[in-house]
Amino acid sequence: MRNVGKLTLGRSVQAISSLAYLAFATRSLGPEGFGKLILIHSLCLAVAQLARFESWQTMVRFGMRALRAEAPAHLRRIVNFGLVLDFSGMVLGMLVYALLLYPVGAWLGLSVSLRHLALIYGLLTIAVLNGSGTATGLLHLLDRFGRLAMMATLEPIIRLIGAAAIFTFGGGIEGFLLVWLLALSASHLGVIFSAFPILAHRGPDWRFRFEPGTWVRPEPGMWRYALGTHWVGAMNVAQDYLPTLAAGGVIGATGAGLLKVAKQFADVLTGAATKLLVPALFPELARLKEHARKALVTRLNLLVVGLFSLVFVFLAIFGKDLIRLIAGPEFSMAYPTMLWLAFAGLVGATSFSFETLLTATGAIRRVVFANTVSLVVYFIVLALLLKPQGINGVGMAAVAHATVRSTLLWWNARSAKELEQ
Fold this sequence. Notes:
The chain contains 14 helices and no strands. By secondary structure, it is mainly alpha-helical. Helix 8 packs parallel to helix 13 and helix 12 crosses helix 14 (about 390-415).
């Protein structure tokens, strides 16, 4: 729980800064221009994270044993494995992005000049984003949550300063893409250049060195676990970014911009769990004995559901006025979608810690099953409702997804050994 406290300040600053630079971006570009910016960014992040292995989870899951046993050679093998995953995700993501950008960009209505710009932005973003997973895992493993909070705060602050400058002096979509790239690079490169020196401070034996071949079979079950967490992460990304791209292709850039605004406000709910509590909870569950896990999971679920309920009521009452105030009156049409997405976040909060529990304890197949079934339901509902309901269809699909996923995660966690002690 103390790690949650360390990350709270950083995430609070991030949330406030995100709303502030959202205001500058929407008012600088308008619904259509903002929508094109979001489509470029979403396509880039979708490809990056679909290709990215969740190596930070693998580091925590398997590195904890090496750290407890004071076995630096063992930990080096795990770090080498993580870096190979990062490099593979980086190369694969860049290749796939380069192949998809021009045909998909044309379907999204992006001009040729914007697609040229998006190519540079995407390749650099994927390289930075997909190269930092192992370093992030090391900071989690070494309990350096203060450093993670600082790096998490850096990105939105740089975005805010850059967005304010563009709003004042001009710069268009090109300026915002440059600012977002600089902000992302500062944050993720900061994590990379922090993690390995901190590890080396444990002593000369702990210094990292690349050892070819040690990553092939570093520990039994690592490849299966890495592929399982990758599949789960890919499914989460599919729900995060593919609907935005679908809205852009079916409705247009303006629809994508409105959907982004709705998601940004609804993220007050869902982001608290996925970006704040889960990274801090994961290593705690990996450390705890089986009998202590049930109490922690139950306590956190009650806390989060209560908090999310209050925030949902607040958004229902004041959300439309907040959208008008921050994004501008032309974005007020995002309010109904925001409520659907916020309600989906509330439903998902009922079981948010179950996925973390199952993943941290190695029951990755249960998580894969729950996420696969719920994602299939999500895209069926989305395909049926996107055209007739517009961006509200995305919110309705999110509620269906959250309901199915929460039910399956609860059932799997209930039947897991960790909750029977």
